[in-house]
C-alpha cells in the first residue's frame, strides 16, 4: 500500500525529535548521566512506578505542568517525588537544591557522589529523575545512578 505522507504527522515527529535532542543535550551539558539504552521492560521499579502514577494522573486529567510548558512537544522532566508534574528543563535544574532523597526523605544534598546521587532515565522527550542522599545511594544494592561516577 502506498499511504500518502501525512505532513502534519511528519512535522509533529520532527518536533518530538527536536525536543528529544534538546533533552539529551541538556543532560550532557549538565553532566547529568551517561546515555544508556534500556528496554522499557528492564526499567527500574522507581521509574515504572513513576510512569504508572503519571499515567493515572493523566487519565483523570490531573497531570500538571510548570507554566513554561505549552502543548507543543518540548523536553520535560518528571521527578519521582511528584510524578504528576511535568517540569521544563530550567525548572528541573532549579529544583536541585531542595530535592529530597527518594528513599529516606532527607534533603538529598548537592548532586555529587559525596553529596546526593541522581538517577536519570531519558525516555522520548521526558527525563525521569530520582535523587538519593549519599547514605542511601551508598547502601543501595540496586544498580547505581548515572550521575557523576555513580
Ligand atoms: Zn518551567
Ligand atoms: Zn536517603
Summarize the topology.
Blueprint: H1 7-29, H2 45-59, E1 64-65, E2 76-79, E3 85-86, H3 89-94, E4 117-122, E5 126-132, H4 134-139
Parallel strand pairs: 1-3, 2-5
Antiparallel strand pairs: 4-5
What can you tell me about this protein's structure?
The protein has 150 residues and is of the alpha/beta class. It has one domain. The protein is 33% helix and 14% strand. It contains 4 helices and 5 strands. The chain has a 3-stranded mixed sheet with strand order 2-5-4, with helices on both faces. A two-stranded parallel sheet has the order 1-3. It is globular. It starts with 6 loop residues before the first helix and ends in an 11-residue tail after the last helix. The C terminus is likely disordered. Bound molecules: zinc ion (2 copies). The site of one zinc ion (ZN) has 6 residues, from helix 3.
Total domain count: 1
Relative helix content = 25-40%
Can you give the mean pLDDT?
Answer: 81
Report the order of strands and helices: HHEEEHEEH
Task: Indicate the low-confidence ranges by residue numbers.
Answer: 142-150
Any idea what the radius of gyration is?
16 Å
Amino acid at each position: 500500500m502506498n499511504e500518502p505522507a501525512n505532513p502534519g504527522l511528519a512535522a509533529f515527529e520532527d518536533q518530538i525529535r527536536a525536543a528529544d535532542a534538546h533533552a539529551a543535550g541538556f543532560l550532557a551539558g549538565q553532566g547529568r548521566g551517561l546515555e544508556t539504552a534500556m528496554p522499557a521492560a528492564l526499567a527500574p521499579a522507581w521509574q515504572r512506578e513513576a510512569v504508572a502514577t503519571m499515567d493515572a494522573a493523566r487519565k483523570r486529567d490531573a497531570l500538571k505542568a510548570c507554566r513554561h510548558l505549552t502543548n507543543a512537544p518540548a523536553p520535560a522532566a518528571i521527578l519521582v517525588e511528584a510524578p504528576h508534574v511535568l517540569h521544563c528543563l530550567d525548572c528541573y535544574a532549579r529544583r536541585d537544591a531542595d530535592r529530597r532523597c527518594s528513599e529516606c526523605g532527607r534533603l538529598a544534598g548537592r548532586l555529587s557522589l559525596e553529596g546526593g546521587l541522581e538517577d536519570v532515565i531519558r525516555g522520548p522527550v521526558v527525563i525521569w529523575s530520582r535523587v538519593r542522599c549519599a547514605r542511601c545511594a551508598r547502601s543501595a544494592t540496586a544498580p547505581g545512578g548515572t550521575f557523576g561516577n555513580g
